[in-house]
Design a protein that fits this description.
By secondary structure, the chain is an alpha/beta fold. The mean pLDDT is about 95. The structure holds uridine-5'-diphosphate.
């Protein structure tokens, strides 16, 4: 198939492109390079453009017939979404709407969409399955939920086939070290921990140690970025026989606290990691762990990286010698 990967120069998008190329698909990467990296596009053809630019999208669809779209473009920082909600909603919601309109005009009827555990807000169950109510608590989560609703409505009205994949905490890197996580600024836990281990960043700030969890720090479900990519491939296959809108939660089903992540990174790196207690970060729920049952049953998806140390090992290899 020929797949348009919007946001294919970003962290998760680039791993998706690698996965698609490995399965023999042809790829067009469409990315405005605002936070993505040209050097991350090592497979397929890069078109520099913005999903808000309808004419640019029309030009891509006019040039070649695409069988499906995978859509990773987003402003994904929760804190930024709170202080700049217009930018968040414009990029995430208007960008998705523009893309869907361009797809419809071009007769492309399949999309796999990057969603997030943030659509659930403060969870009322642990683990979180797909029937858990969606009640986002910040503009980022709300924008992704709005996109999901758009996909649901488009499925009914126009016959769009769509899967929303709600990632828990994407982590790790290409084990061969070709692509990895490189955000400016970096806000995520594992990169910050590893940079502290390398002496490249300040002591790691542990945001909150008085949560109702086993050691007082937040618990998250870390899933390897290559496993996320594999789930997208399975979602694409599902859409061949299952029209309509589908949502899946993607995680390992096991939670690790911030302190457990630090301990794992110390084991993997063989270094002591300086850390300091800091106030809670606004909008962080104490525990977010996915129920992987539906993804297992309907997508046949089983993460290959179920051990936290193995996930961190791939990230450590990347952070010691990042290619970009
Ligand atoms: N966190 C932390 N120090 C950091 C970065 C993150 O203590 O420098 C915590 C954060 O509060 C959350 C967890 O680590 O509980 C995972 O945060 P991350 O930003 O990686 O992902 P999120 O859960 O926000 O998607």
């Amino acid at each position: 198939m020929r797949i348009l990967v919007c946001g294919g120069a970003g962290y998760i998008g680039a791993h998706m492109v690698k996965c698609l190329a490995g399965h023999g698909h042809e790829i067009t990467v469409f990315d405005n390079l605002a936070s993505g990296h040209r050097a991350a596009v090592q497979w397929g053809t890069l078109v520099v453009g913005d999903v808000l630019d309808r004419a640019a999208l029309d030009a891509v669809f006019a040039l070649q017939r695409h069988d499906a779209v995978m859509h990773f473009c987003a402003r994904s920082l929760v804190g930024e979404s709170v202080v700049e909600p217009y930018a968040c909603y414009r990029n995430n919601v208007v960008g998705t709407l523009t893309l869907l309109e361009a797809m419809r005009a071009a007769g492309v009827d399949r999309i796999v969409f990057s969603s997030t555990a943030a659509v659930f807000g403060n969870p009322v169950t642990d683990p979180i399955d797909e029937d858990h109510p969606t009640a986002p608590i910040n503009p980022y989560g709300a924008s992704k939920r709005m996109c999901e609703r758009l996909l649901e409505d488009a499925a009914v009205a126009y016959g769009l086939r769509a899967v929303a994949l709600r990632y828990f905490n994407a982590a790790g890197a290409d084990p061969a070290g070709r692509i990895g996580e490189s955000h400016q600024p970096e806000t995520h836990l594992i990169p910050n921990v590893l940079r502290a281990a390398l002496g490249q960043g300040p002591a790691l700030k542990v945001f909150g140690d008085d949560y109702p969890t086993r050691d007082g720090t937040c618990v998250r479900d870390y899933v390897h970025v290559d496993d996320l990519a594999a789930a997208h491939l399975a979602a694409l296959a599902l859409l061949a026989d299952r029209p309509g809108f589908h949502a899946f939660n993607l995680g390992n089903g096991t939670g690790f606290s911030v302190r457990e992540v630090i301990a794992a990174a110390e084991r993997v790196s063989g270094r002591r990691i300086e850390c300091a207690s800091a106030p809670r970060r606004a909008g962080d729920p104490p525990t977010l762990v996915a129920s992987g049952a539906r993804a297992r049953e309907q997508l046949g998806w089983r993460p290959r990286y179920s051990e936290l140390d193995a996930i961190i090992e791939t990230a450590w290899r990347w952070h010691r010698a990042p290619a970009y």
